[in-house]
Fold this sequence. Notes:
Blueprint (H helix, E strand, L loop, with lengths): L16 H26 L5 H21 L6 H11 L2 H7 L7 H29 L7 H21 L6 H7 L7 H34 L1 H7 L8 H4 L1 H13 L7 H27 L5 H20 L1 H8 L7 H26 L5 H26 L1 H6 L3 H4 L6
Helix pairs in contact: 1-3, 1-15, 2-3, 2-6, 4-15, 5-6, 5-11, 5-13, 8-13, 8-15, 8-16, 11-13, 12-13, 12-14, 12-16
Amino acid sequence: MAASYSEITGWEFILDYKSALIISQVLGYAFSKVVGIKVISELHPVQRGKLLILLILASHLALVAFAIVPAPYNVAMLFFNGLPLGMVWGLVFSYLEGRRLTEVLGAILCVSLIVSSGAVKAVAAYLMLEWKIPETWMPATVGVLFLPALFLSIFVLSKTPQPSQADISARKQRIPMSAKMRWRFLGETNLGLLALITAYVFLTAFRDFTDNFAAELWQALGHSEAPHIFLTSSLPVALVVLGSLALLVFVRNNYRAFQLNLLLVAAGGVTCITATLAFEGGAISGITWMIAINIGLYVGYVPFNCLLFERLVACTKSLGNAGFVIYLADSSGYIGSIGVMLYKTFAQPNLNWLQFTQQFCYATGFACILLMLFSLFFFTRLSRNYYSRSEHITTVAY
């Protein structure tokens, strides 16, 4: 969030108002992700476009209600904003999965997440500083500005052709998953998937914390009066992440690509740790540190949102789709985000934003390294079980 919400009339609780807003919205996300485990995995392609539009409009109405309803009651409106938004990612990615170019398309989609986060914060800060838009009306105002581009994007997505026979041969056909199919996939991946999801919980919680409290972090680093910093600092992150992930499209063997995804996540952890050590030692500036830890964070975070699970599904024997695994991980990740917010507020109330971020960076970095090493060892059996291309060609009618 670009706003600090530090002077809100009607809020008289121990938990600060901004933290309450974030927890409320993340609770909406988390609940939506839990529901999405079933809904997204079972969704038929013809239902996607209309559902996307309905979800976006519902989320924006909640932002309007947030501006109208006074505090403390408007905190609940952020829950209703997060509730429909939690389904959007899975719907969008369902257009892209199961293709030979999924890495490129997914990397572009994920990089847009990085850039748009910075762009939205820059626009929001500009609206509040230059147009004097009140903090409570800022989210709805920004949303209106971006709605036309969003609807255009949905229209373009709706024209995306179905995966070709060559795509199906390379990545397996993606079909709606029944409960029995979901349990079969979990039985095949079990402890390895648990390790992946645990790493993703750390990454999601760290990503949400640094994203939601970016304004406070930049203020602590001495850049509170520069709205453009949100966007300019995200551009090098986007370029590095896009370049590193798009190269995976050239790896045809799904198991090898899956291994490389795991190594990328571990490399992201190493980057976070190294950059924080350098910053604490005075070797790099605050801006360089923020860019570096965000590169490490997103190099680890982005693969989980599409590429890593896309390849995992492609090299298991279970039929289904990546949306199921993504939502299983997402629901866990957002619950972790709530836990971190509560921990910071009640267990470490005197620790400033910068110190907490540094400690969190170390924890996330080491978790990624250790859990990815375990996953590499556990999933070696996939290379032995890797089945022939002829089995990929099997198709199932919707």
